[in-house]
């Protein structure tokens, strides 16, 4: 999607030729419903997703096309997240946000690379809440920088073009250089989280996700057991932090460019919304929710779902052969001119002004159907808590320099560091 834009991407159905296969993309609500929900089994995740992620998450659930094992594993993720009360997520997030914001406010020159910092904060939150520990400062800096490098190199389109040509495909993967990065990230996760769990140094009671895996018989001895545990822990940590960090980075950047909106949001998040003002009488929770939803609309962290067709299908009179790639893209759906009013405008109030909720086929930052995100509640509580801990305390301003764009490889994270000015918000600032 970095290569094509504008009206072409708004078509209800595009079927294009790649060198060896067809590629379909659809924005048609009925087609979206069919591919993601009604006939999801016929449109599993593409194995390109698996191949791009294998150096990092091994055979972890996120890269798997589907089937019974995926259903079972997803149940373990969902069950473990369901056992964690909102108050626990909130307390951990509050404490860590305070620590990070204190440090940001002391940063030299008042400048902070906010995308890296949000990645570090969110990986700390998800690891402390689900595994009872977090990386050291040095480890977390290394981990987030490596993941950024991984993102830059993991270009799905290259693999889609090379598809089925085994030699070219193997060469492309080798040349992308994902394996050494993935190996180093796995080593960091192994040392910090997996080994202490397996040796008993970290009690399972403090690590709800590890406990759920153990209770489901997914914790076994030996090198294979260690790697299998690492695969799923890597999914939890990676899916559970980069998405939230990316949303918060874009949101912070939007607010830094709109001081009026930022000031009223800061007031409203501290419960001081002025009647008749922008936020009317919305509660702090509702304001945080509207800000997050609007950032997720304009910058959905997973900008496209890459599926494959198991059987031939006909949509809108066009034939899509078996073994084609099929893309459903929140990125285009969320900005589609026929589905949204003022689609390109950052307008959080649209979520509070009584307008009808969007159709599930027009707005799906957390996905739809069998592979829908099991961490949506976690993300909502976490983002609300971070916004309430940050905006009433700190004023954000843009820094000079080239503006970041969405990277669009694995996720829509910014393609360069977003550096913001951060200063103490005085009472007079709102
Ligand atoms: C703003 C935050 C988040 C967004 C937008 C988001 C979005 C998504 C989406 C779209 C998928 C499905 C991908 C697909 O169908 O191909 C997904 C999967 C997943 N998410 Fe999230 N997510 C977020 C936060 C989280 C959090 C906080 C956690 C855990 C604490 C989490 C855990 C997972 C897991 C484990 C999967 C894989 C499920 C599977 O493979 O079936 N996510 N997420």
From TrEMBL:
Signal peptide: none annotated. The keyword Isomerase does not apply. Its cofactor is heme. The keyword Iron applies. GO terms for molecular function: heme binding; iron ion binding; monooxygenase activity; oxidoreductase activity, acting on paired donors, with incorporation or reduction of molecular oxygen. Heme binds at residue 373. InterPro entries: Cyt_P450, Cyt_P450_CS, Cyt_P450_E_grp-I, Cyt_P450_sf, Cytochrome_P450_monoxygenase. Keywords: Heme, Iron, Metal-binding, Monooxygenase, Oxidoreductase. Belongs to the cytochrome P450 family. This is Cytochrome P450. It comes from Pseudaminobacter soli (ex Zhang et al. 2022).
């Amino acid at each position: 999607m970095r290569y094509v834009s504008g009206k072409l991407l708004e078509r209800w159905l595009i079927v294009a030729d790649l060198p060896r296969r067809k590629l379909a993309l659809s924005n048609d609500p009925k087609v979206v419903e069919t591919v993601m929900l009604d006939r999801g089994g016929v449109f599993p995740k593409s194995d390109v997703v698996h191949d791009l992620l294998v150096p990092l998450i091994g055979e972890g659930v996120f890269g798997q096309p589907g089937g019974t094992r995926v259903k079972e594993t997803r149940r373990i993720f969902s069950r473990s997240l369901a056992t964690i009360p909102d108050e626990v997520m909130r307390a951990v997030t509050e404490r860590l946000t305070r620590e990070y914001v204190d440090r940001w406010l002391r940063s030299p020159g008042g400048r902070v690379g906010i995308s890296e910092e949000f990645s570090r904060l969110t990986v700390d939150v998800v690891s402390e809440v689900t595994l009872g520990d977090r990386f050291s400062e040095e480890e977390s800096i290394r981990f987030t920088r490596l993941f950024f490098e991984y993102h830059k190199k993991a270009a799905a389109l290259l693999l889609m073009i090379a598809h089925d040509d085994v030699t070219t495909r193997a060469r492309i993967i080798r040349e992308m250089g994902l394996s050494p990065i993935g190996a180093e990230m796995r080593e960091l996760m192994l040392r910090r989280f997996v080994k202490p769990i397996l040796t008993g140094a970290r009690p399972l009671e403090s690590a709800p996700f590890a406990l759920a895996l153990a209770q489901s018989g997914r914790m076994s001895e030996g090198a294979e057991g260690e790697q299998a545990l690492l695969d799923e822990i890597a999914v939890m940590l990676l899916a559970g932090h980069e998405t939230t960090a990316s949303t918060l980075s874009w949101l912070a950047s939007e607010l830094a460019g709109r001081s009026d909106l930022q000031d009223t949001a800061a007031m409203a998040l501290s419960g001081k919304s002025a009647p008749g003002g922008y936020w009317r009488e919305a509660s702090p929770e509702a304001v945080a929710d509207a800000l997050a939803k609007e950032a997720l609309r304009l910058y959905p962290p997973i900008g496209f779902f890459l599926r494959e067709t198991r059987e031939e299908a006909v949509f809108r009179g066009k034939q899509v052969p078996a073994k084609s790639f099929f893309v459903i893209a929140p990125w285009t759906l969320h900005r589609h001119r026929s589905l949204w009013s003022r689609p390109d405008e950052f307008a959080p109030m649209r979520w509070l002004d009584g307008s009808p909720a969007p159709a599930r086929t027009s707005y799906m930052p957390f996905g739809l159907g069998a592979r829908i995100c099991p961490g949506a509640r976690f993300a909502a509580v976490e983002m609300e808590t971070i916004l309430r801990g940050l905006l009433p305390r700190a004023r954000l301003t843009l820094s000079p320099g080239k503006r970041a764009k969405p990277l669009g490889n694995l996720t829509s994270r910014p393609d360069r560091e977003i550096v913001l000015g951060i200063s103490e918000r005085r009472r007079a600032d709102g």
